[in-house]
Amino acid sequence: MVDHAALLPAIQQVVEKKQVDVVTISIPSSNKHDYCFFMGDLNLGMWMEMQRKDIERGLLCEKLERLLSFNELNKERHMRRSFSEFEEMRVTLGPTYRYNVEIHVFDTSHKMQLPAW
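Structure tokens predicted for Inositol polyphosphate-related phosphatase domain-containing protein:
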């Protein structure tokens, strides 16, 4: 078993920079280990093509599969540019952060951050 952690830059518009960062991170070959965990704040945002109101509506209607299809990490994996050797379990819950503190409302600060997993 091997584990690895990283923090990638939080620049939502620069997916290409994150791809380079991921490539330069020394990720052990997954075929040499039974289990390989990669954890961290990857700052791979959600749904650059979607409007915030559509994201929130999708979450309220529990349309997780559709929303996950717009997830940058999933797109990168499917295009085999980053993390293509990794498998992710089926996601069955909504995002767990980007809420206002202590209430069940998405970020209403001046940042207006999008919900993410």
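The mean pLDDT is 71.
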